[in-house]
């Protein structure tokens, strides 16, 4: 429990699951007037309350550190009219809200990688290339952030959706290839070979030699600790120098978070079985019981 000192917490993929998020903040005793909250991307989509979630995050944004995930980039692209809705899309209430422009501009200006000036953690949504040092990773993320924040951001997003990402850095033949590869690593990666060849589908590759990205990364980059999400089928994974926090809330499992400023990461979880479903949540009736937001009246 928070005993009066400012605290820093991190939470995995929310994906529009606002009610469990509020329950988890209550378990943590998160105080938005003084504490800091890190969110490991995929804030929106699939769950039924993306608009309510973004409204709350936007209001408390000065106390929140986020990185963008693949679903967040998808949401920005939907808002910009660049791509049509996918079958699993639950963004209609968000995109039709009169505050959507403010929310999505905030997301567009948000980072791909967050490195704290005090705590020894780097946060990304999915992965970091095993051969990228912390400074390499900051540089590659900066290339994406500059393009997404710049005046040609629509062209950048159109380019991302126009062709698949190369499977390796060495296979990149243009700056467009390089940007697609960078985005895929930071927001979609799971499986990679020892030689740096990625398999982008979510399922384990049939070819031998592939392993979870963090196996190679933790062996090769010994001076950095990583917080990530993205991989619900892997589930919660707490290792020395790795906190993989996607425990599949939107699929009816759990929402997980940790306190980062304690001697050892302190785990908090809430049940999300109210989201259990065969396909996707289709409306508020699929959601969890509501809770009062910290700093707001219920």
Structure notes:
With 298 residues, the protein is an alpha/beta fold. It has a single domain (8-286), classed as Purple Acid Phosphatase, chain A, domain 2 (4-Layer Sandwich), CATH 3.60.21.10. It has nine helices and 13 strands. The chain has helices spanning 18-28, 50-59, 70-79, 92-95, 100-108, 134-149, 153-162, 175-188, 213-220; strands at 8-11, 36-39, 64-66, 114-115, 122-123, 191-193, 198-199, 210-212, 226-228, 237-239, 242-244, 254-259, 266-271. The strands form three sheets. Strands 3-2-1-12-13 form a five-stranded mixed beta sheet, with helices on one face. Strand 6 (191-193) and strand 7 (198-199) form a beta hairpin. Helix 2 crosses helix 5 and helix 3 (70-79) packs across helix 5 (100-108). The two termini are 22 Å apart. Mean pLDDT is 91; it is low at 278-286.
